[in-house]
Amino acid sequence: MNQQVPPDLSFRDEAGKTVRLGDYFGKKPVVLSLVYFNCPFMCTEVLNGELRALQGISLTLGKDYEAVTVSFDPKDRPPEAALKSRIYTGMYGRPAAGGGWHFLTGDQQSITALTDAVGFHYAYDPPSAQFAHATAIMILTPQGRIARYFYGVQYPSRDVRLGLVEASEGTIGSPTDAALLFCYHYDPLTGKYGMVIANVMRIAGVITILVLGIFLWVMFRREKYGLISPQVLRSAATRDAMSAAMRGRKT
Fold it and tell me: Is the dihedral of CA 46, 50, 51, 56 positive or negative?
C-alpha cells in the first residue's frame, strides 16, 4: 500500500508503440491488472471480473479513470495485446473506452520491476507450459501509488467505485460516494470495504436528534399560537377528569 509504481518502466502498447507506465499517470486514478494473454483460464476470469466491475459503475473508463493491463509473460507481443484490447473495450461498450483501457507487453526486466513493486507473485510451470499466479486488480492514485487491492476474480462494483473515488482524492465521484465512504472503510486484509458501525451509529444519533428537535419545535409552535384543536383540548380535559375521578374513588 502506498508503494510507488516505477513510472519510467518501458513497455509496448497494443499498437506496438513504446510507452512508459508514467504516460498513464498524472490526472486520473488507474485500474492496474497483471495477466498473460495466452492464459487458458484464470487470466480470462480476472479480465472478465474487471470488465463486470467497470461496467457496473457510472464512472466512465477513459474519462474519469484509466485501466492498464500488463502481460507478465515476455513472450506476449503487441498483436495479442491488440486482440485483447478489441475484445474488452468492445464488450465494455462505452464510446470513451477506446483510449482508456491499455494492454501492454514488455521484456523480462520491466515485467520483474513492475511485479516486484506491486507485490505480484507468479511462477512458470514447465510441465504444463503455464504460469501459476496471483489473481487481483489494483487501484493506483493519479501519481501511480498503490491505493487499493481487490483480490480474486470477482470485484464488487461498489468497492471498485469507492476505491477509485478515494484514490482520486475527491476529483471524481458524487456526494453519495462521500457519504458511503463515511460509512464504509477499506480493509487491506480482506481487500473489501466494510461498514464502520461507529460511524453508522453517529449518523443514526444525529438523525434521531434532528427528528426529535423538529417534533418539539412543531409542538411548541402549535401551543404558542393556539393551534391545538378544540377536539384535542376536550379529549385532554376528559382524560384529566376521569383520572381525578379514579383517584377520588381510591381515596
Answer: positive
